[in-house]
Amino acid sequence: MSSRTGSDSAPLDDVAALTERLAVLLSAGVSPVSAWGYLLPDPVLPLPPGHTGARDGHGLRGSAAEPPAWGIIRAAAEAGRRGRSIADAVAERARHLGGQTGAAWLGLAAAWDVATESGAPLAACLRDLAATFRHLGQLHRDLQVALAGPRATARLVMALPVGGLLVGALMGFDALHMLFLTVPGWMCLAAAGALLWVAHRWSGRLVRQAGMTDAAPGLLLDLTAVAMAGGGSVNRARAVVEQAAEKFGIRSGDGEGSEPLHAVLRLAERAGVPAAELLRSEARQVRRDARSAGQRRAEALAVTLMLPLGVCVLPAFMLVGVLPLLLSILSTTLRSF
Questions:
Q1: How do residues 271-326 score in pLDDT, each as one tens digit?
Q2: Could you give the 3-state DSSP secondary structure of residue 55?
Q3: 219 burial level (CB within 10 Å; 0-12, 13-18, 19+)
Q4: 133 contacts 15 by C-beta, under 8 angstroms
Q5: Is 40 helix (H, G, I), strand (E, B) or coil?
Q6: What is the pLDDT of residues 202-249, one digit of tens each?
Q7: CB neighbours of 181 closer than 8 A, spacing ≥ 6?
Q8: CA–CA distance, 171 with 100 (Å, rounded to integer)
Q9: Strand, helix or coil for residue 174
């Protein structure tokens, strides 16, 4: 297995690629236990540059230098060989990762658990899940691109007070002496520092609120479609999904696991058609809605970031860049008389 670990590699795309490889192996007749083992690095291949881990019979032993995916795959393969739950092994490692990568692995663990419990075809379910992860990865990338401008604006604005101070020094005024070696300067510096700290926390909170409110929108709908593929009843499928969601911490920040799910199931029941495809279609719609909502929040962020600018950063700029300059001019003028 080649692991993409560069900064340009989206974690969800990496998990999607591994999930699809699992699906291909299972479709070819490889057992679930053996499939995880085949995903480990080939023991006859050279170690990656800078890797100090020792090899064992299944690839690489754990070390701090290896990509997190290898540790998760190794844990899943080991759990399968010992007859333990593969989903639990994946989830245990994923919880230590946290963030987007951990959430993706938890989603894979939940799907594996749901497919196993409901008797759904595992290979087909993993193919659908890989497509879901790719859609989610694109959704996260779109939001990051939309937030790039407001984030750059926030960083630039935070540098204004320092820039004002440097301009005053280049103009030949003794603003630095006034700011760092006098009591009024210390007071200005302390007040400006407090204002910049508030602006930094405020701006960071605004950016976080504009980010993704749900790590995996539509995933509960996809998991329900997986459970329905097992051929069980609707109530059985919902029970399996609810149990997996509770077990693996799959949550929906937008409530897509309740009302849209009920509406789709009622529609499938009235029309007498399989609910799985309707659920997947609804999940794709949820992700499209999440992308649109994220772009709207990013556009609004460009306006709301003006609040910490006007309330905190501009006063800090006056305290550090303008007031010491005026005090320096006034002191020089008074000494000349």
A1: 777 787 888 888 888 878 877 887 788 778 778 877 887 888 788 878 877 777 77
A2: strand
A3: buried
A4: yes
A5: coil
A6: 888 887 777 666 667 777 888 888 888 777 777 888 888 888 888 888
A7: none
A8: 48
A9: coil
- Name the strand (E) or helix (H) holding 27: helix 11-27
Q: Find the helix packing angle between 160-170 and 323-336, rounded to 10°.
A: 20
Q: Could you tell me the CA-to-CA distances from 301 to 57, 75, 183, 290, 296 in Å, in that order?
A: 52, 42, 38, 16, 9
Where residue 272 falls (left for φ over 0; alpha for ψ -120 to 50; beta otherwise) is: left
Average pLDDT, integer, range 183-212: 82
Tell me which residue of 296, 226, 298, 284 sits closest to 256, measured CA to CA: 284
Q: ∠227-128-262 over CA atoms, to 5°?
A: 45
Do 294 and 134 meet the contact criterion of CB atoms below 8 Å apart?
A: no
Q: Is the pTM of this model over 0.85?
A: no
**Token pair 């800078």: residue:** 50
